[in-house]
Amino acid sequence: MEEIRLNKYLSEMGLCSRREADRLIESGKVMVDGAPAVMGMKIREGQAVVLNGKPVAGTFGPKPVLLAVNKPKGVVCTTSDKDRALNIVEMVGYPERVYPVGRLDKDSEGLIFLTNQGDLVNRIMRGANGHEKEYVVQVNKPVTEEFVKTMETGIWLKELNVTTKPCRITVTGKQEFHIILTQGLNRQIRRMCDTCGYSVRSLVRIRIMNVHLGNLKTGTFRKVTRREYETLTEMLENGRNFNS
User: What is the rounded distance in angstroms from the CA atom of residue 80 to the CA atom of residue 68?
Assistant: First the structure.
């Protein structure tokens, strides 16, 4: 009968990294079949695992899925039919049920996650954690020092009744810049640019935390690598960001 290390199982279920799993096991917060787990132990199908007093559902059930997708323009990230446009889940056509982590608006492109892990979605989306997302933006006129300073400092968005958090901008062309945000307001970059008198011509997300878009072709997807996944879960636990 197949066995798997307990720390690996907890990591693959999207609950923590292997390192954190070892700490939880060592501190007595993991039970297997009613008994405290021990370091290095393996589990097999049918055993009951409890973490922090809550059963870990799906022992040896469907494995967690985390996909990196390069969303094209014109595809929406909601699964409702309100927009009548192709949605990201339909486009990917993954054989298991997955759903997007956050969203990119219909006119934007680039990296978005699809997953079957509700807990992972909640941890990534929790705005207070300040997880970085990086975008390449092209605008309709030259990027000035004043524009960069205004954007980086924070902008009052009247329609959302909020001031944006400080961000980082790197100018990469006459009418192009990279921007790193730690919040995800509705159409935030477009609203910020509009407030400054600029119009966005192209917007592509190229990074979420430690996962980069890289050379992934538009309209395609890949599985997040084990190394990326373990780093991601460690960052979520420790409240860290990835500095590119």
Answer: 21
The tens digit of pLDDT for each residue in 134-185 reads 999 999 999 999 999 999 999 999 999 999 999 999 999 999 999 999 988 8
For the stretch 78-111, pLDDT in tens is 765 566 788 999 999 999 888 898 889 999 999 9
Inter-residue contact 76 to 108 (CB < 8 Å): no
Burial readout 112-146 (b: 16 or more C-beta within 10 A, e: otherwise) = bbbbbbeebbebbeeeeeebbbbbbbbbeeebeee
Among all chains, which residue has been given the structure tokens 């680039």?
Answer: 110
Indicate the pLDDT class of residue 117, thresholds 50, 70 and 90. Answer: confident
Active site residues: 105
Judging by beta carbons within 10 Å of its beta carbon (0-12, 13-18, 19+), is residue 101 exposed, middle or buried? Answer: buried
CA–CA dist 23, 117 (Å, integer): 22
Tell me the residue type at 76: V
Choose among 56, 62, 2: nearest CA to 25.
56
Tell me the three state secondary structure of residue 29.
Answer: coil
DSSP string, 117-145: -HHHHHHHH-GGG---EEEEEEESS---H
Closest by CA position to 69, among listed 216, 215, 181: 216
